[in-house]
Amino acid sequence: MASIIAKPGPVLGIETSCDETGVAVYDRQRGLLAHALYSQVELHAEYGGVVPELASRDHVRKLLPLIRQTLAEAGLAVKDLGGVAYTAGPGLVGALLVGAAAARSLAWGLEIPAIGVHHMEGHLLAPMLEDDPPEPPFVALLVSGGHSMLIEVEAIGRYRLLGDTLDDAAGEAFDKTAKLMGLPYPGGPALASLAETAEPGRFRFSRPMTDRPGLDFSFSGLKTQVLLAWQRSDGSEATRAAVARDFEEAIVETLAIKCRRAMAATGARRLVVAGGVGANRRLRAALAGAGNADAFRTYFPRLEFCTDNGAMIALAGAIRLEAGQHDDPQIKVFPRWDLESLPAVI
């Protein structure tokens, strides 16, 4: 990786790792200038989950119009850009290639640097889009449909994995549990909404792996407990809501317990919570309250930046481009990518 400095100018960020097309323009001096997001939820709803080939084709259809729209909203032309950042992984290989090809083509044509961004680093840095951003060192809880991990952040690019999921991620458990109870796609938000209508305590589900040391997660057994409880129940709407509420309580309490352990183990005083599940209202309330009691402060991105978005990719890319990092002209993506393998920003 050559050490060059991006020319002055805002960075275009492109996110196409799964089923949302995100574009944003970020400037290190002026902040976020514009962003746009297109969700494919309606496209995949009839299948009950993301169909990779359909996701890739829809990115092809929507990406260039979104780039034009975002640049127009920022009052910029493509010649004003100083760099391009794109999600290079992890994610669906076809979807990643759409964003990578567009980004590399733009960068080549404009003779500006481009950099592939780790999707989870984007989530991890998303709270830095806010007015009062966290400064490293901190601990990050990254919770989404594909990931549930605790990361110690010494500096940007200096990451140590503290705990990971052994099976289902928290968001995946939300979605699968919703589906087995007959809730509409996308299941996680539907389950959380239904849980709001019930009082807790009718069902008692386990808090997985909290009865032993360590910071890893496992939610597949909890999902099985919920399935059995639902199959043995009367199947009423009131029971469906009660199951949803107590399942959500189990997930939230498990995540909160692990976060407190991580903060105690590292001695950190700042906790970042990011990823799609970071938008969950009960999780945000539980961890904000935990900070008051346990002498650490919790930082969240705004709700629109919890789910996949271009703003977090533009920010992460701008930081690395300013540090002189960029990629060679090859179009490369990494469906699996170890966060700890990233170079530090010096």
UniProtKB/TrEMBL annotation:
GO biological process: tRNA threonylcarbamoyladenosine modification
CC per GO annotation: cytoplasm
Keyword Ligase attached: no
EC number(s) given by UniProt: 2.3.1.234
Cofactor: Fe(2+)
Subcellular location: Cytoplasm
Function per UniProt: Required for the formation of a threonylcarbamoyl group on adenosine at position 37 (t(6)A37) in tRNAs that read codons beginning with adenine. Is involved in the transfer of the threonylcarbamoyl moiety of threonylcarbamoyl-AMP (TC-AMP) to the N6 group of A37, together with TsaE and TsaB. TsaD likely plays a direct catalytic role in this reaction.
Protein name as catalogued: tRNA N6-adenosine threonylcarbamoyltransferase
Gene name as annotated: tsaD
